[in-house]
Design goal:
By secondary structure, the protein is mainly alpha-helical. Helix content is about 70%, strand content about 0%.
């Protein structure tokens, strides 16, 4: 009776609505009703922040976005998880061509800055995020179904009695590389659109969290992504481990069948984006175009921005820079089957999730510099030891080869969350998606630059050809190990610069943003450098995908 009376009193106006608690979404609607001035309306993030919402309620409001990240992870893991069984085991591509495929796909994610500008400043039907999420899924859906319609070429090696033989049945597999690399690249571009819009919404949610617990929503979203990775990796371990892929199952599924399965995943993902992701419409232009470009330029001219950008690029370059010989070590000397590779990925993803949980529970306020040193040592030293054991035939075992992956998985998860939190902390108001995507573009640009640089550097030791691994003489082993050792020395030389420019913690970033100087020269230098590295990645990876130019020394080949 009391509640009914209060409801009648509210309708009659005897109780002021401002004395009644409203959820942030309800408060947003009330703000819309109270004023006819569109500029006075608050954004969804501001409603979260101003209402003093608890951590638990903010996580509940983010549930739709968490589910979206789960669906995205299913498809993104399909792209990465099918790369080794299809391109290396099924088509038997040279190591530097295989690495270039990974690099060319990474370039797609470097476009996130421009996609974020679209999402931030060009709303569709008054929504900045949801329409772009749906648009990205639609592109991915159509591309995956296109792959499902194409006939798959015959495998490189002949298959007889559920066993892959040494007889070459299709020596022309390299001619099909460009078609599949471009189709899967287009699907990844659709996922980049979806991911970029989701990240913009994630930053809005993250900035609404209390400072001491900030990063919890980010951590939960990545835990859901790890869960999606588990599902896909288990499926790939079962379906792409037949004789055509050099596996030990008698049954297998072709790439077109698996692509069709993941094309179906897009339908519930589109439904989730349309009806479950929580975003309020913007009844006025959230940020005028000219004002946005001016704000973005001011951000690029900030010393603090360039410092954080340099850290993100150098750390990812340091982590990803490796000899192209490592893929041939995995394929020829360790003889890793697709099943073992996917089981390793599942265990690594699980351990990464554990690392994220540990960071969320115990390490949110620990010095980032200390964590970076620990994570660097944990990710490099075990890998170096395992490679030494495999190269010099102390022990060549496909399970032992992945031992270092399990050791370094948890530190990898921690460092990824640290980079995500740093990028979120540097984001500007009303440009959350753009500034966050700026650092994520730098993050993803470092991957192809490091991979392609590793290919070119490894070409000096002539270790990209499979002939050196088939002959397996002492000289071959020494040359392979020399290329690996040189790459690790370069990583070690980069580490002091990474630690010097890395902020200590969230409070340090806040002080850097407040006290940072600005210079147009710094902004111009950053833009020119970004363009040069982007063009370098695009040209070198593009040359590697064509059979007639993949032999060039500039892309890591032996020369034409």
């Amino acid at each position: 009776m009391v509640f009914r009376q209060r409801g009648r009193d509210m309708q009659n106006g005897s109780i002021d609505r401002k004395h009644v608690y409203h959820s942030p979404v309800q408060e947003l609607e009330l703000n819309k009703d109270r004023t006819t001035d569109p500029s006075a309306q608050v954004s969804f993030t501001q409603a979260l922040y101003q209402s003093g919402i608890s951590q638990k309620k903010s996580i509940v409001l983010s549930t739709g976005l968490f589910v979206q990240y789960f669906f995205q992870s299913l498809c993104k893991t399909f792209f990465s998880g099918s790369r080794y069984p299809f391109f290396k085991r099924y088509l038997n591509l040279p190591a530097h061509v295989y690495s270039s495929i990974y690099a060319s796909w990474s370039i797609v994610w470097s476009l996130k800055l421009f996609l974020a500008i679209l999402s931030d400043c060009f709303p569709i039907f008054k929504y900045r995020r949801k329409p772009y999420i749906i648009l990205g899924w639609t592109l991915t859906l159509s591309t995956l179904f296109s792959i499902a319609l194409y006939p798959v070429p015959e495998p490189y090696f002949e298959v007889a009695n559920c066993t892959r033989t040494a007889v070459v049945s299709n020596p022309d597999t390299e001619s099909h590389v460009f078609k599949y690399a471009m189709l899967l690249g287009a699907a990844k571009f659709g996922m980049a659109i979806t991911d970029c819009a989701s990240d913009g919404l994630l930053v809005e949610y993250t900035r609404s969290e209390p400072i001491r617990s900030r990063g919890s929503i980010n951590s939960i979203s990545h835990l859901l992504q790890k869960l999606g990775s588990f599902v896909t990796l288990i499926l790939l371990a079962l379906l792409m481990n037949g004789p055509s892929y050099g596996g030990f199952f008698c049954f297998e599924a072709s790439l077109r069948v698996v692509a069709a399965v993941y094309g179906v995943v897009a339908f519930p993902a589109i439904f989730n984006a349309a009806f479950e992701v929580n975003e309020q419409p913007h009844h006025s232009q959230i940020c005028p175009r000219a004002q946005m470009m001016s704000s973005l330029w001011r951000q690029l001219c900030s010393v603090a921005t360039i410092r954080v950008a340099a850290f993100v690029f150098l750390y990812m370059f340091m982590y990803s820079f490796q000899s192209s010989a490592e893929i041939n070590i995995k394929h020829h000397w360790a003889d890793v089957s697709p099943f073992v590779a996917n089981v390793n990925s599942i265990l690594s993803a699980l351990l990464q999730a554990i690392g994220i949980l540990l960071y969320k529970k115990y390490l949110l306020n620990v010095s980032w510099r200390l964590l970076t040193v620990v994570c660097f040592l944990a990710t490099t030293m075990p890998a170096f030891v395992v490679l030494y054991i495999t190269v010099f035939d102390v022990a060549r075992n496909q399970w032992l080869y992945h031992l270092d992956d399990w050791i370094e998985a948890a530190p990898e998860g921690m460092m990824f969350i640290i980079i995500m939190v740093i990028s979120a902390e540097m984001s500007s108001d009303k440009l959350e998606g753009t500034t966050f995507a700026l650092f994520m573009s730098i993050y993803t640009l470092a991957l192809p630059v490091a991979k392609l640089s590793g290919n070119i550097f490894s070409g000096l030791f002539d270790v990209s050809s499979k002939d050196r691994f088939l002959s397996d003489t002492n000289h071959d082993r020494q040359m392979v190990f020399a290329s690996i050792l040189s790459c690790y020395i370069i990583k070690l030389c980069i580490l002091p610069f990474v630690l010097y420019i890395l902020p200590v913690q969230k409070e340090h970033i806040a002080s850097l943003k407040k006290e940072s100087q600005r210079s147009n020269l710094i902004g111009a230098t950053f833009c020119v450098t970004f363009c040069i590295l982007f063009v370098f990645s695009l040209v070198v990876s593009g040359l590697s995908l064509f059979q007639s130019t993949s032999c060039l020394k500039i892309v890591g080949g032996r020369g034409c």
